[in-house]
Amino acid sequence: MTKAFIPMEQDLSGGVLHLVPCQFVDGNVLGQNMFRAKARYSLAAGNGNRADENRRAREVSALSKGSITIKNGQLVTPFSIFPGTIVIENGIIAYAGSPENAPSGVEPVLDAEGAYITPGLIDIHVHGGGGGDVMDGTSGALEAMGQTFSRWGTTAFLPATVTAGHRETLKAVKAVKEAAEKGTGGAQVLGIHLEGPYIDSGKRGAHHPDHVRPPSLQELEEIWRAAGPLLKLVTLAPELEGAEAAIRRLRSRDVTVAIGHSNATYEQAVAAHLWGASHICHVFNAMRGLHHREPGVVGAALTCDGFTVELICDGVHVHRAAMDLVLRAKGPDKVVLITDTMRAMGLPEGRYQLGGLDIEVTKEAARLLTGELAGSTLSMAKAVKNAVEMLGVSVPEAVRMASYNPARTIGISHRKGSLTVGKDGDIALFDAELNPLVTIVGGHVVYQRT
Predict the structure, then answer these.
(1) ∠244-247-251 over CA atoms, to 5°?
(2) Does the annotation count 424 as an active-site position?
(3) Average pLDDT of 307-318?
(4) Is 267 helix (H, G, I), strand (E, B) or coil?
(5) What's the confidence (pLDDT) of residue 375?
(6) 281, 260 Cβ separation under 8 angstroms
(7) Which of 209-216's residues contact partners 24+ apart within 8 Å by CB, and which partners?
(8) Number of other CB atoms surrounding residue 45 within 10 Å
(9) Full set of structural domains in the chain with CATH
(10) Kind and range of the H or E run holding 81
């Protein structure tokens, strides 16, 4: 099969997405073993007929076979947008480039009709969604999360624990491992983000105070034995006793270490970088803030080139001006969009729990009953849209912050995060307003908008 590299310049033209569950040659439908339906079904707008919507859902379900051609779309690369075609074979991107050079014969065919074709969005900081929570300690909770996230263009995620007892944490880790092996039927489980319990009590946010403690090499060894290389990211406070040894041990096993829920000084944060920490957990939130005489963790995050930073781009967790400051200091290459979602994501407003604490969820935010922010119900698609609308970044920049950057942060950019031949066939399609239309994981259609 002919392969191609992606050119880096072209203009965007928006459009409406349609599925093409059939192909015609000289006016005739192709053979019995190919596509038989004659109609095109719009995903961008329905006629309100539930039977039609169910029929469209069945047509898309029939496409889920691990191989697919997506044509007539606007391919979003890390730096540009251009008209192109994607071919996925056996779950792997086999072609990404201009329509003229695209190979034929890989079926079924999805006609994007001008929609954005982006790499699947990757969320490396999620606690729950769709009623499930990582700390439920069941693979079913992870399945609910994966299926919920896929409705908003997320194709892979890193479940994050919260501060808890060691046994409860190990139970959650084992459930994540099981879900990673079984799959969720939606977004893929990438591994584990251990957020807490090695955090500063005064900056714990929505983490339960009874379980906050200094880093323990013994506990980390037990977690490593349970998770192995699925342990991708650990957030801790570097000012705690034992933090240096923990960071060095984790880095010796290629685990990314983030500073978060920390009251560290600027000097302590910079020292942590020298020990191996390279990432900042939800910048500005739950950390010592920026002061002109004590820059704190935020000052280190913004001025140290070696740090990537997570950003909850909802306009609630971080003021627009502060988000703009982050982008000016770090540039889009060092910003990772996250959601920090909890179990209420995708569910109605009401009262829920996070880490044993009661949370009140409204349209605006998720908060502890004391008023402190407690995660979010943000989607990755909305985070991308907010980055474009609130911060004025380009679509390629916003998508990069939600796909390639998170993949690189946890060491998987060789197989995920961009529309590159040889990478996993994880794709998202969006309309001109950046609303999600179709989500494809490993060449399988796992979501379509009806």
Answers:
(1) 140
(2) no
(3) 95
(4) helix
(5) 67
(6) yes
(7) 211/163, 211/164, 211/165, 212/163, 214/240, 214/241, 214/242, 214/243, 215/240, 215/241, 215/242, 215/243, 215/245, 215/246, 216/242, 216/246
(8) 10
(9) 18-119+420-448 (2.30.40.10), 121-409 (3.20.20.140)
(10) strand 81-89
Q: Is the pLDDT of residue 22 over 60?
A: no
What average pLDDT does this structure show over 68-74? Answer: 97
80 burial type by CB count under 10 A (0-12 exposed, 13-18 middle, 19+ buried): middle
DSSP 8-class letter at 434? -
The residue annotated as part of the active site, out of 136, 340, 424, 431, is 340
Name the DSSP letter for residue 4. -
pLDDT at residue 196, rounded to an integer: 87
Which H or E element spans position 227? helix 217-227
Does the pLDDT value for residue 125 go beyond 70? yes
Q: Are 187 and 149 in contact (CB under 8 A)?
A: yes
Query: Can you spell out the DSSP letters for 158-216?
Result: EEB--S--HHHHHHHHHHHHHHHHH--SSSEE--EEEE-SSS-GGG-TTS-GGG-----
Residues 159 and 189: beta-carbon distance below 8 Å: yes
Residues in the chain: 450
- Per-residue pLDDT of 393-424, as tens digits, reads 999 999 999 999 999 999 999 999 999 999 99
Cβ density class 315-354: b for 16+ within 10 Å, e for less: eebbeeeebebbbebbebebbbbbbbbbbbbbeeeeebeb
Query: Which pLDDT value is given to residue 355?
Result: 66
pLDDT above 80 (res 197) = yes
Name the token pair of 173.
Answer: 């880790």
Range of lowest pLDDT (49-53, 194-198, 271-275, 310-314): 49-53
Predicted TM-score (pTM) of the model is 0.85
